[in-house]
Design brief:
This is Nuclear transport factor 2 family protein. It comes from Streptodolium elevatio. This protein has one domain: Roll (Nuclear Transport Factor 2, Chain: A), CATH 3.10.450. Helices cover about 35% and strands about 30% of the residues. Strand 4 and strand 5 form a beta hairpin. The protein has four helices and seven strands.
């Protein structure tokens, strides 16, 4: 597989958010596989143990977070440089019935063999974040709260 083009990566980025927010898992998976049919590696967030494989890097996050989190690219922050994409993501979620938002910086490097390396930067929730802290205990059980 050739490295995805800038146009393909911009389309993937747009659809990443749209399909997530619409709850269209099969289409979201197809969108991912159109640009990354190979292996997945992910630091989520950087500083935690590396995750491997599509199931662990994409599907587990969907299953844990999609029903509770709505995504939005922060305006003007989607960058495609050669085979890499970076953006600032707004992660909107509800804690104790109150709408909250946290920001993450996310980077994706797409390789010619179809693989992708994902590096995400954000603060992990601490125990006072209730539901989100509980979800992260499942998602990232070795995390240091608030780090």
């Amino acid at each position: 597989m050739a490295t995805p083009t800038k146009e393909q990566l911009l389309h993937w980025a747009e659809q990443f958010v749209a399909l997530w927010n619409a709850g269209e898992k099969d289409a979201w998976v197809a969108n991912w596989r159109a640009v990354a049919p190979g292996d997945f590696r992910m630091l989520d967030p950087v500083g935690t143990p590396e995750k491997h494989g599509f199931e662990t890097c994409a599907l587990e996050g969907w299953d844990l977070f999609q029903s509770a989190v709505r995504l939005r690219h922060h305006p003007g922050t989607v960058y495609v440089c050669a085979n890499e994409v970076a953006w600032v993501m707004e992660n909107h979620f509800s804690v104790h019935g109150t709408e909250r938002m946290s920001m993450s910086v996310e980077t994706y490097r797409f390789e010619p063999d179809g693989s992708v390396v994902i590096r995400n930067y954000y603060r992990l929730p601490d125990s006072s974040d209730g539901e989100m802290a509980e979800i992260f205990e499942t998602y990232q059980p070795t995390h240091q709260p608030g780090s």
